[in-house]
Amino acid sequence: MSTYIIGEIGQNHNGSVDIAKLIVELVSRPVREEVFGIELRPMDAVKLTKRDLNEELTDSQMNRLYDSPHSFGRTYGEHRAFLELNDEEHFEVYKYAKSLGLDFVETLCSLGCLSLLSLFTPDRLKVASRDLTNLPLLEAMAETKIPIILSTGMAGKKELDDALEVITRHHHNISILHCVSQYPTQPDNLNLKTIPYLKEHYGQYTIGFSDHTIGIAAPVVAVGMGAEIIEKHVTIDRRMKGTDQQGSLGPDGVNRMIRDIRIAERWLGKEELYVDPAVASAKVKLERSIATKRLLHVGDVIAEEDLHLLSPGDGFKWAERSKVIGHKVLKEIPRNEIVYQSFIE
What we know:
Layout: E1 4-10, H1 17-28, E2 31-33, E3 38-40, E4 45-50, H2 59-63, H3 76-83, H4 87-99, E5 103-108, E6 124-127, H5 135-143, E7 148-151, H6 157-167, E8 174-178, H7 194-201, E9 206-211, H8 217-224, E10 229-233, H9 251-268, H10 280-286, E11 289-292, E12 307-310
Parallel strand pairs: 1-4, 1-10, 4-5, 5-6, 6-7, 7-8, 8-9, 9-10
Antiparallel strand pairs: 2-3, 11-12
Helix pairs in contact: 1-4, 5-6, 8-9
C-alpha cells in the first residue's frame, strides 16, 4: 500500500510565487526513519487553489471592510485579490513542482478558472467542499477527463450522489475525501468512521481524507482505517500572517507526518496470522518448553507430575507432552532443565 499524500498550499503562499515555491521545495524533501535507517517516500503532490473573483462573492461581501490581523487589504475583495495568483503564476509553480518530481493538483473554484488549463494540465483537479453542489462547475471539470478529487466537508449523501451522477457522465476516475469543514476540526466532530463507510458504499472510487485537525495523528489513523489519499495544509512557517498558517504543518510537522504515514503503511502488512521471521530468536529465547521438576535418572519413566514449563523455547511444548510422558529416560536430566528428544526413549 502506498498512500497518495497531497500538501495543500492553499493561500499559504500569501500572494507570492516565491513563497509557493519554497513550500513546494519543503514538500519534496526526502524523509528518513532514523532508528532503522529507512529512506521513505516524500509527499506525492502539492495543491494550489484558483479563484475567479468575478465569480466568488456578492458585491456587498467583496466590498465589506475586512479588519483582521490576517487581512491583506482594506476590504475582503482587496484581501482576496492580494492572495490570488494568476494563471501564469500557477503555471510557474506547476513547472517547479514537476521539476522536483511532484504531481500537481489544482482546485478550481469557478468556470472562469478553467482558463489556466490552456497553459498546463494538472495531474488531478480538486473540487472544494463548498462546490460539491456547483453542478455546472462539476460538469465543466468532468468534461476535461482529468481525474477529479471530491471533498465532502459540507456534503451529505445526496450532495455527493448528485455530484457523482454529473461527473460519471464523462469519466469514473474519481477520488472522494472524507472532510469536515471546521478549521480547526474539533475532536468530537471528525468522525473518521466515515472512511470505512465510504469504502463500503463508494468502493469503486479511491477513498481518502482531507484533514483540518491540529497535529499529525488524524492522518495516520485515517491511513490505518483505509484512506488511500491524505491531504494536509502545509506552510514554511506557522507564525506567518494568514488565516490558514496556524492550522497548517510547518517543515518539522511535514517531515513527521510523512514519516509516520509511510511507517504506518509498513505496519499494516497483510491480513494473516503468522510468526514473522524477525521474532524467531525471541521465540526460542522466551517461549517455554517442557522441563523437569526433579532430577530424572536413567531408566526413570516420566510422569506428568515430573514436569513443568521453563524457557528457552527450543524443546517440547505442553501440547506435545504425550511425546514425553510415559517415556524412559536415556540420559540423566538435572532438575529444572529442558527435556530434549535425545534425552528420552
